[in-house]
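User: Predict structure, ligand arabino-flavin-adenine dinucleotide.
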Amino acid sequence: MRTQVLIIGGGPSGLLLSQLLAKKGIDTVVLERKTRDYVLGRIRAGILETGFVELMRQAGVAERMDKECFVHDGTVIANGNTQFRIDFTEHTGTPVVVYGQTELTRDLYDAREAAGGKIIFEVGNVRIHDATTAYPYVTYEKDGRELTIHADYIAGCDGFHGVSRQSIPVDVRREYEKIYPFGWLGILSETPPVHHELIYSSSDRGFSLCSMRNDHLSRYYIQCSLSDSPNDWSDQLFWDELKRRIPEDYASKLETGPSIEKSIAPLRSFVTEPMRWGRLFLCGDAAHIVPPTGAKGLNTAASDIHYLYHGLVSEILDGDLEGIDRYSERALARIWKAERFSWWMTNLLHRFPDQSDFDVKMQSAELAFLQGNVQAQSTMAQNYVGLPY
Ligand code: FAS
Ligand code: PHB
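Assistant: Predicted complex:
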């Protein structure tokens, strides 16, 4: 088989790139390790920057999102019982959109399948060959057979544990990593959100986040130990702990119910450079990871796709190499700013095992400064709604 752009990974990055390129008449094939249902069963991001929303519109898959999403003009930040609001729209003129990653991935799958897009599920042993030549190709296993796909370009959209990043020689790659000494225990519950906007809360017992997916589906997180497992946390234990970590006026009206999903995500900051090796381009989690505190994971995947999509279209349709030649430089410039913001939010709102009383005072002082300083709030708002592409 041959295609113009071979995409490894059928998550949001790979599907969005495939859909955008298809709209320009560029042929793609997506190789996905799991089944569609498995991919859709992963509960992940919830907040979209307007840049992502625009890309979904460009891709022609924004209809349901525009109907069902929530538009949030701000968020609540709490420290114990003290709380204040950051008004994104007042400071930046733009809101953020609440629309679950599961739903946008479903919309992308539906669009690709309606357009007859080629997505091959349950592939195994994907290997990339001759990426630094003009004739790269990929081999993979499917139903016990080894198959080959020749491509002009390969997009590695296969996430942190994928094969693409590992296919770049270790002496070519430079990796940067910070692993945080805690995780996030998240639950999904068919209950109304406790507040109409998100609540990011710091407390002596640790971080918590009150989020949502719609009027009757809430998403809550509490910082937990890396040695915890979801089975250590009954629903009652979770609800009781969440109530201890949010301001009393929310704790008193929190509607609890059975969890329909419960999982623990480790937190790490990670970047690999460069994001291009010959005709292989890394996108999204294949190249970088952020702690979810700043809601940047999925949104940095979107800006990668923006840069790569325009670069590939310019080269394939007009022979202009500038976009793909500068892809890694442009993508990394924005990624590192998102890494910094996610690291800053994580350090500001979480309790660290080795933290001193002085360190806790520094966090409280920074939160008090953020509460009282309009420039500090504007800076946070600009980063949260998404820096320009
Ligand atoms: P993905 O990991 O989503 O998709 C990669 C795809 O490639 C997967 O479907 C995988 O099956 C496939 N794949 C892997 N190896 C392959 C191979 N060898 N061959 C073929 N296919 C292969 N971000 C937020 O903004 N907020 C959050 O709250 C949040 N929570 C998260 C919780 C968890 C547990 C994780 C892991 C991430 C979370 N993220 C969150 C970040 C997440 O949303 C990612 O940024 C987003 O999924 C990135 O999308 P992709 O780059 O497409 O990678
Ligand atoms: C979510 O709703 O899953 C969510 C929202 C904001 C974050 C992280 C996760 O920062």
